Amino acid sequence: MLTVEALTSGYGQGQVLHEAAMELPPGKAVAVLGRNGVGKTTFVHTLMGLVKPWSGSIRLGDDELAGLDTRQIARHGVRIVPQGRRVYRSLTVEETLAISSGPGEWTIERVYELFPSLAARRGHRGDQLSGGEQEMLAIGRALLGNPRLLLLDEPSEGLAPLVVEELGRALSSLEGMSIILVEQNLHLAVAVADEVRCMVKGSFVYQATTAEFRRDPAAAKEYLGVGS
Amino acid sequence: MSLLVTAFDGIAFGCLLFVLAVGLTMIFGLLDVLNLAHGALYMAGGYLAFLVIGEVPTSLAVFIGVALLAVVAGLVLGGGLSVAIRPLTRRGHLDQALLTMGLAILLSEFLLQVADRGFHSLAAPRGLDGSIAGSYPAYRVAVIVAGLAIAGATFWIFERTRAGALVRAAVDDPEMLAASGVNVRRIRLSVVLAGCALATLAGVLGGPLLNLRAGLDTEVLVLALIVIVVGGLASIRGAALGALLIGQVQTLGVALVPELAAYLLFAVMAAVLLWRPAGLFGRAT
Ligand SMILES: Nc1ncnc2c1ncn2[C@@H]1O[C@H](COP(=O)(O)OP(=O)(O)OP(=O)(O)O)[C@@H](O)[C@H]1O
Ligand SMILES: [Mg+2]
């Protein structure tokens, strides 16, 4: 499905990704874990073309995405839910969903079913929403593009535990969608993902199924700095 | 009574300033380019009308036809402008200022060559060249009506349509919009074209109010810049309120304290900015 090989990128002179490589089996959710600043956001931004790849390859199905611009990558069916949510501040929930909606099985009504609290706020502007509502809106915006590949960058960041739980349920219900989920919240990551990859200094150094990862507390400690 | 007349003049002038400034503020919000050629576009509209119909009154239909011609000219010039500024995206504001100022000089000198360097003014079209309610010039009322109609249409498009939502999204976060598969470049081009067309249209509307002459471009540009700084950048509401405020200040100032009018404008701008540094409707980022 998605095959990333020897991907390097960075900002100006500063290289962040060092030959990052991963495979995402079709219809699976993979969690990308790693400490602050290892390059997780840079990785998903490079996949989306928001950061230009310096070298390496990003193959989605039969398509090579490395070198395309962001809009072309989006047209190939990739969508991102960015870190910090980045909802359109001056658009209402309804407007945001309307301009993001493309042909396919995801409709605005279905997004409201997934996130009922968003439906209740449909007339509110992006900058009037709570963090949790903004996250739901950012996810809805991405889903309406009917993605072949969905990138989620720390959706739980800054949200209350109850909201994170609601997000977890929603994301788990996306069963069958190909997802890369960047997370520092281990609970959410293992609840949603089928497999786990850990990143250190811009490379992937660990891969396991979620079940294996659960039985391997040393990995969590080493790559995330948490005990369990 | 005469103060009331002056206040009405201020509204008419404010409406004219809105038509000019709304494009300037949206182009800045969307492209991060301060188009210093905007005053020259206004001037192009006025001189185009002067070259076509001269200074004699025409029928309303001819006047409207000339206004539409100016809109077309604005679209063409806007196309040229977007080609010219494309290589400068992501360069500093100074480069863009130099480029658009250079274009402004080229355009205004060209117009003065084709016409001449004297003073000219358009005549109000027949039917609007009389006065209303005894003594108030009908054409000024027409400018107010046209300005309000254009403002209303702009608001409606911007706030109520899908196209307007796309433009606002492109101001808020162009990267995320592109990441939804939208062609942000096309949205930017549309806004440049619309903004430039409104500027040349303003030039025709203002032809019977402000004399056509050398230096007109910088004069209206400075006013439009004050409007958008006072109103808050990239805000249509801000452009509307700023235009009405500056229209009043300018007209009242000229009528009451002519020797201080220019200072008054800057004093008002300074006062607004001290009170709200991002302008009336600006975003405090
Ligand atoms: N726009 C940028 N310009 C320059 N350097 C950047 C930029 N964004 C990130 N960096 C640097 O790149 C490195 C990786 O950052 P990145 O945001 O990818 O890390 P991350 O793993 O997502 O961190 P976090 O968990 O805090 O979100 C960091 O050293 C960061 O300082
Ligand atoms: Mg990050």
UniProtKB/TrEMBL annotation, chain A:
Q: What is this protein called?
A: Branched-chain amino acid transport system ATP-binding protein
For this UniProt record, give its keywords in alphabetical order, as a comma-separated list: Amino-acid transport, ATP-binding, Nucleotide-binding, Transport
> To which protein family does this belong?
Belongs to the ABC transporter superfamily.
Q: Which InterPro entries match?
A: AAA+_ATPase, ABC_transporter-like_ATP-bd, BCAA_Transport_ATP-bd_LivF, P-loop_NTPase
Q: Name one GO molecular function term.
A: ATP hydrolysis activity
Q: Does the keyword Transport apply?
A: yes
SMART domains in UniProt: AAA
TrEMBL record, chain B:
Q: What is its main location?
A: membrane
Give the transmembrane ranges. 6-29, 36-54, 60-85, 97-115, 138-158, 189-210, 222-246, 253-275
Q: Which residues form a coiled coil?
A: none
Cellular component, GO, one term: plasma membrane
> Could you tell me which species this protein originates from?
Nonomuraea soli
Q: Which GO terms describe its molecular function?
A: transmembrane transporter activity
What is the protein name given in its UniProt record?
A: Branched-subunit amino acid ABC-type transport system permease component
Keyword Manganese listed? The answer is no
Q: Where in the cell is it found?
A: Cell membrane
User: Which keywords are on file for this protein?
Assistant: Amino-acid transport, Cell membrane, Membrane, Transmembrane, Transmembrane helix, Transport
Keyword Transport attached: yes
Q: Which PANTHER family match?
A: ABC TRANSPORTER ATP-BINDING PROTEIN (PTHR11795:SF442), BRANCHED-CHAIN AMINO ACID TRANSPORT SYSTEM PERMEASE PROTEIN LIVH (PTHR11795)
